[in-house]
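Sample entry (325 residues):
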Amino acid sequence: MQFIIFLSLGIFLIWFSTKSFTANEINKVKQLVFNAKPIIIVPCILILVLSHYIRAIRWKMLIKPLGKSPGTLNVFLAVLTGFFFNLLFPRLGEVMKCTLLGKYEKIPVDNLIGTMVAERVLDLICLVLVIFLAISTQIDLVGGYAKELFDQILSKLNASPTAILLMVMIFISLAVIFYVIYIKTRHSSFIIKIKNWMKGIVEGLVSVRQVENKPMFIFYTLAIWFLYLASIRVGFYAMQDLVHLGWVPSLSILTFGSFAMIATQGGIGAYQFAVQKTLLLYGAKEVSGLAFGWLLWSVQTVMLFITGPISLILLFTLNKKSVKS
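Predicted structure, serialized as tokens:
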């Protein structure tokens, strides 16, 4: 159901972003995407692959305090496989990469899930920093746009206090029900297994505090997001209409594009729409903005659809002996 809802929203946003376009303008979008300079697209792909490799190294640093030292190649292949499966179903990639790495490196999956949650918390902190930089460096432009978006969200929430009250009541009721069930079954084998599983996740979470080289860990974290930013900045050179744009518009696209990637399945529709509306703030044409959104999304998606299955096959073939043993 979640998959269908997110995908439907993405399809709606694709229609919404082009509903005012003429047939010629839609053809223009296609031409801009397909005529993008390959000499620029290749560096963008390499930058993204490098960001995933650094993410793998950072994840390995989180795993090491657990008393395990997985192979860097295995971790890298698991990361690429995870991103690929995330395109297919929401959050499936997180489970897959932990399961695969746990299987081939003999690491408890619950510990790996804990480190994965820690990674997501770090990414959230970085996203908040990106938002702060984007708004503070161009408060008059992006700040007004962000305020307008937040005001629209708040107005929708304020318009339905009954719905909010109902959600709170449901949450409290569920909490009470789960508590009663826990009290009655806390000594059962199933609950004990759940406790052990949660304990493993907590051990993975606290691994951040036990990282050996914290300065390098912070450097890798910042490098990942800088490479995301750099891929957008380099991407501008692929389209003649946007070559004049620099780091500041790239920062804005990274900000609103990150939210868009969460909004729909694989970011389809939402990412293109967010990039289009963001570039309008910098004087870009609607056609060029939408085309650039499709270009960035296509580069990321096609790259993962190629590297993901290859990584899955390599994980299986390279670790066939270790699994048998």
